[in-house]
Please model this.
Amino acid sequence: MSRLAPEALLTCAGALLIGVHAHAAAVSVVPHVMTAAEAATTMLDDGRVALTTQISGDLKGPLTIAFRVGPDGQIAGEWALAVSYVQDVDAAGNPVAFEPHEDGDVDAAGQADHHEVLIQRGVLKGEIAGGTMTPGDNGAIAAIEGAWLQVTAGTQEFAAVTSGSGFLSLTTPQDGGAMTGQLDLTF
Model:
């Protein structure tokens, strides 16, 4: 019996390693690199700054962050990305490349050749665990640099997402337009 125990132990250990490897292969971490544009800010009644920006890339939709700024410019707060957008589709419901079109565009049979549908994939959200805000003129924000976003939860398509992280950086252009920048998330 003592001679069989090491063999049984090795068999169990091998099965355990195969199971762990299969589980690790099933859980993949995917990086998402996106751009941010049209950022706007508001002061909330509780003293936090609310910033909204439009995200584009493989995830797209409005990003909202609400944060407090410490005396050293460090920021902390919360964020949410609603992955929601309008998609052009053909008459069969298949996505098509965006083309500006007039209402009433029709094909040869007099049918609308494509229309728009609202895609709502879900929400990703979490905490802001660092980064800095640089003030600009007249109380505006000149930049948000390296805002560390921790992913804590998701809904709908992202319901299984419970962890991840990323960075948000935004700057105001020289001409004083809306802040633009980049959002990187990995989950």
